[in-house]
Design brief:
Oligomer: single chain
Number of strands: 11
Distance between the termini: 54 Å
Shape: elongated
Number of helices: 8
Helix content: 10-25%
CATH class of the largest domain: Alpha Beta
Strand content: 25-35%
Order of helices and strands: HHEEEEHEHEEHHHEHEEE
Length: 288
């Protein structure tokens, strides 16, 4: 049974309420829209009674789960979409695709993972949903976005049986003359500044911080011949070149990340970090 079913609404409601602030932050990063987010009333899709703005242009985001997809649509009538969203450059495309990825992680339970995602401007949202084979009676969960006292809706709809058809095919490359004319247009807003702390990382990045990695402290190492190893036994002495005052190496996997001195923490061994070690840089010769 597909995860994109009517029962998903009840699971998404508390997730969206909990992540409302993060959803707002994602929209700020993705389309430069400073909004407050609230969860609207769930409904079902009816092609004969389209929600306001759906029978017109706007932004459609596709989040694929298995063989089906969830669509997130934001009509142009919302007033939240800036001009560059209609025909974004490479940077703008990356921002929109990242927005789709972030939303795919913020609106559904942690047990679900979007295998493919994307975002694109379309001239008719209803036609895009029809191409993606969203049937009448499909689930619809709106998020209410409020900016300067005006409220619009970001609508999530599922399931779309044809994820590949939900987004239109990429447009062919333009002629140089037309491209030069567009180069004169104002560029999209710059990407957001780098986070100053781990708490400012986007949600999809913060998930990586939960991964456990092996950490060890290396005292010293040397190479011995197989014969020397076989001759080892109780009472044997193995000498090393390292001084007793030299620092120890803190390692993650097989990479040194810091150096420090051994200390006693209660009844246990510890390491007081004295310096961090930057990763090795690799340079390659450029060939013509």
């Amino acid at each position: 049974m597909s995860d994109l079913n009517a029962d998903l609404v009840a699971q998404m409601l508390p997730v969206c309420e909990e992540n409302a602030d993060e959803i707002g932050a994602a929209l700020m990063r993705g389309i430069d829209a400073e909004v407050t987010v609230a969860v609207g009333t769930p409904d079902t899709f009816n092609a004969d009674q389209l929600p306001e703005g759906v029978d017109g242009p706007g932004l459609v985001m596709m989040m694929q789960f298995g063989d089906e997809a969830m669509a997130a649509i934001l009509p142009e009538e919302s007033g939240l979409l800036r001009g560059w969203v209609r025909e974004p450059d490479i940077t703008g495309e990356g921002m929109l695709n990242t927005l789709a990825q972030e939303l795919s992680m913020l609106v559904v339970p942690d047990t679900m993972f979007s295998e493919k995602f994307g975002a694109m401007w379309v001239e008719n949202l209803a036609q895009s949903l029809q191409d993606g084979e969203l049937a009448d009676g499909a689930s619809l969960l709106p998020l209410e976005l409020t900016q300067d006292g005006v409220t619009s809706q970001l609508m999530f709809l599922w399931p779309c049986a044809e994820p590949a058809k939900l987004l239109p095919p990429p447009k062919p490359k333009e002629e140089p003359a037309k491209a030069a004319e567009k180069a004169k247009e104002p560029p999209p807003p710059p990407p957001p500044p780098s986070p100053k702390s781990l708490t400012e990382l986007p949600p999809y990045a913060r998930h990586l911080l939960k991964i456990s990695v092996p950490v060890s402290v290396r005292l010293v190492n040397k190479r011995l011949s197989v014969q020397e190893v076989l001759e080892l036994g109780p009472g044997a002495m193995v000498s090393f070149d390292k001084s007793c005052d030299d620092t120890l190496e803190l390692m993650v996997g097989d990479r040194i990340i810091a150096r420090g001195a051994a200390v006693k923490v209660g009844e246990h061994f510890g390491l007081e970090v004295e310096e961090m070690t930057l990763p090795d840089e690799h340079f390659y010769t450029a060939r013509r």
